[in-house]
Amino acid sequence: MSSGERREQLISVARALFAERGFDGTSVEEVAARAQVSKPVVYGHFGGKEGLYAVVVDREVTTLDNAIKSAISQPSKSYREVIERGTLALLDYIDDRPDGFRILSRDSPVGSTTGSFASILNDIATRVEDLLGPPLVRRGYDPVIAGVYSQALVGLVSSAGLSWVDTRRPDKAKVAAELVNLAWNGLSSLEHRATLLTDPRETAQITRDAGAAGAQPR
Question: Which CATH superfamily is domain 1-47 in?
Answer without folding.
Answer: Homeodomain-like (1.10.10.60)
